[in-house]
Amino acid sequence: MSADGGNLTAPLAALLELTHRCPLQCPYCSNPIELERAKGELSTSEWMRVLDEAAELGILQVHFSGGEPAVRRDLPDLVAHARSAGLYSNLITSGVTLDRARIAKLAEAGLDHVQLSIQDVDHQTAAYIANYPGVQGKKLAFARMVREAGLPLTINAVINRHNIARVERMIDVAVSLDAGRVEVAHAQYYGWAIRNRAALMPTLEQVHEATRHVEAARERLRGQIVIDYVLPDYYARQPKACMGGWGRQFLNITPSGEVLPCHAAQTIPGLVFESVRHKPLSEIWAASEAFARFRGTDWLPELCRTCDQREVDWGGCRCQALAVVGDAAATDPACALSPKHDVLRALADAASSEPPPDFVYRRMAPHDSKTALAPTTS
Amino acid sequence: MTSPQLSSETCPGLAPGVRLTFDKARDRWVVLAPERVLVPDETALEILQRCNGTTQLDAIVDELANAYSADRSEIEHDVRDLLASLIEKRIVTA
After folding, report:
1. Residue A114, beta-bridge partner list
2. Over the range A142-180, which residues count as b (16 or more CB within 10 Å of their CB) and which as e?
3. CB of A207 within 8 A of CB of A214?
C-alpha cells in the first residue's frame, strides 16, 4: 500500500473556498491580501454544479474551506450534495461559529471529517494571534462537540515565533480532544504571512527544538495519534513538492469561482485564471493556460531540468520563487542548489533576530473611499 | 508505544473518517482518509474489504486461506502485519 505517486491525469482533491468572510484575523492566513466580498460568491446551485463536475473529473476529496466556510448557511446542503456525488468531504474550520445543532446537521449530511485550527494552547496568545477574545475556549468546546457527534477530528496548528515554544502541548491538547490526527505546520510565507514575516518567523534554534519535540511525540504517541509535520521552507535544504506538483493533483476554487493551481497563484503576474461560471471544470483543468504554465517538467529552469529530484519536488513552489527571487519560473530558493538559497536563509535570520513587530491582521480592505463618499447626483 | 498483539477474536473495521471506495475515473479501489488517498495492492484490498467491524480476524484469515488455497499460517502472518501497520496509521481500528 503506497501513497499515490502514479502518473495521474485527473486531480485527486479540490480546496473549495466557499467564502473569504471569517470572524478570525490570523496574520498568516492563506487567503490573498485582496479578499473577495460576499456579493461575488458562487450561489448554492453553482457550488452544487461544481461538486458534480469535480466528481465527474475524478476528484475524490473536497475540502470545504474559506475564510470560514460555516458562515455560509448552505454548508450542510453542499456537504450532502458532495456525499451524494460520492466525494469525501472535509471541513476546514475555525470552529467559532458552529453550535451543537449545526454540527449534528453536518454529520447527518454525511461530512467525513473535520479539521479545526488552533492558534496556541495559551489562551491569551491564541486570542492575540486570531485577534478574537476567548477564541481558544470556543475551539475546545467545538472540538468536544465534534467528537460527541461522532465525527473524526484533525487539529491543525500553524507554528510561528509566538507559539513555537508550546508545540508539545499543542500535540497533547489534540490527544486530549480525541483527535485522530494533528498537523503541526510551520507557517508558509505567502499572502498575509509574507506581509507578517518578521512578526511570525522563528529562529533556526527554535525550529530545531520544535522538531525534536515533534519527533519525541511521534515515538511517545505511536498508534494513538497521527502527527504530520510541515517543515519551514526558509530553513529547509530541499523544496517541497508544492501541491504535489503544479496542476498535477490539486485545484483550488475561490469564492467567486476562479480556478487556481494553488491558493497563492494569484500573486503570480501574467497568469490568467478561468471561472467555473464560464467553463466546465474539466475544460479548465485540461486546457487553462494557468494550469499549463508550470505543469510537468518541460518548463523547468536548467538547474532543475537535469536534477534527479525533478519528479519528486517538481521544482518546488512557484509563489515562493516569485516572492523571494522575483521570478516565478526560477528554482524554489528553498533548494540548497538554488543560487538564491542564501537569500532565503538571510531573510529568515534577519526577521527572527529582531523583536517581533505588531501584526498586520487579515481584514477586508475598506470599501473604496471615493465611491463611499461620492455625493449623490439625484 | 508498541501495538499490542491482536486477538484472534478481534473484529477489525475501517477507522472513523476512512472510506474504501471504487475510483471510477482511474478504475481502481482507493482508501480515502483525512488528507490521504491510498491505493491498496491486491492483498491489502482483499483484507480491507473484510474489515467490516463484524468479521473476526480468525475468520478473515480462514476466508483468505481458502480463497487462495494458501498456507494458513503464512496468510495469518501477512494479515496481522498489514493490520498492525494500518492500525498505527489509523486507517483500521481493532
Report:
1. A91, A153
2. bbebbbebebbbbbbbbbbbbbbbbbbebbbbbbebebb
3. no
Q: What is the pLDDT of residues A356-371, one digit of tens each?
A: 999 999 998 876 544 4
Q: Which residue of B has its CA nearest to A224?
A: B88
Paired residues of B87 in beta bridges: none
State the ipTM, two decimals. 0.89
Mutate to test the interface with A, among B2, B24, B35, B90 (most CBs of A within 10 A): B35
Instruction: Kindly report, residue by residue over A66-98, the tens digit of the pLDDT.
Output: 999 999 999 999 999 999 999 999 999 999 999
B2 touches chain A (CB under 8 A): yes
* Distance from C-alpha of B79 to C-alpha of B15, rounded to nearest angstrom: 17
Q: Decide the pairing of beta strands A61-65 and A88-93.
A: parallel
The type of residue at B18 is: V
CA distance linking residue B86 with residue A276, whole number of Å: 38
β-sheet bridge partners, residue A3: B38
How far, rounded to the nearest angstrom, does the alpha carbon of residue A288 sit from its chain's CA centroid?
Answer: 22
Cβ of B88 within 8 Å of Cβ of A3? The answer is no
Q: Which residue of B has its CA nearest to A88?
A: B32
| Burial class of residue A50 (count of CB atoms within 10 Å of its CB; 0-12, 13-18, 19+) | buried
> How far is residue A22 CA from its own chain's centroid?
14
The grid coordinates of residue A78 equal: 453542499
The C-alpha cell at A228 is 504530520
Total CB pairs under 8 A between chain A and B: 79
Contact A19, A256 (CB under 8 A): no
* Whether B59 contacts chain A with CB within 8 A: no
Burial label, A228 (beta-carbon count in 10 A; 0-12, 13-18, 19+): middle
SS3 state at A158: strand
Show the cell assigned to A149.
Answer: 457527534
